[in-house]
Amino acid sequence: QVQLVESGGGLAQAGGSLRLSCTASVPFWIYDMAWFRQAPGKEREFVSAIRSTGSRTYYSDSVKGRFTISRGNARNTVHLQMNSLQLEDRAVYYCEADERVNAYWNSTFYDFWGQGTKVTASS
Predict the structure, then answer these.
(1) Alpha-carbon span 73 to 46, nearest angstrom
(2) Taking a C-beta distance cutoff of 8 angstroms, is the pair 34, 101 a contact?
(3) CA–CA gap between residue 45 and residue 60 (Å, rounded)
């Protein structure tokens, strides 16, 4: 069983930056990783994903050019660098993982996820 723990959320001003981290209980270099987010009253939506090899990354249109997903030097971490934060980015961010995910944008294709970390942006 893989356990994921997100960290790095908090309050940032619009236009500011935050860096989220996801730490797994085991090395997850064989897992595709993704970040999803869910705002109050809304469905969970795809933010970004990275393949197990790190060779491919994906972003939603709403964050492309502002967010960067990367794998940490340790085999059990993934980061999401969020720049130019907007009020629309306010949500709880979840890290998800699974092997060889075809539909990387679909949360239901991931078997493992964390408890989430909350991101708040102020104007």
Answers:
(1) 24
(2) yes
(3) 9
Per residue in 33-82, pLDDT tens?
A: 999 999 999 999 999 999 988 889 999 999 999 999 999 877 789 999 99
Residue 26 pLDDT exceeds 90: no
Phi, psi of 85 (to 5 degrees): -60, 145
Alpha helix positions (H), the chain: none
Using an 8 Å Cβ cutoff, are 31 and 99 in contact?
A: yes
CA distance 75 to 98: 15
Classified as helix, coil or strand, 24 is strand
Name the DSSP class of 2. -
Share of the chain above pLDDT 70, in %: 100
Q: Which amino acid is at 44?
A: R
- DSSP for residue 63: T
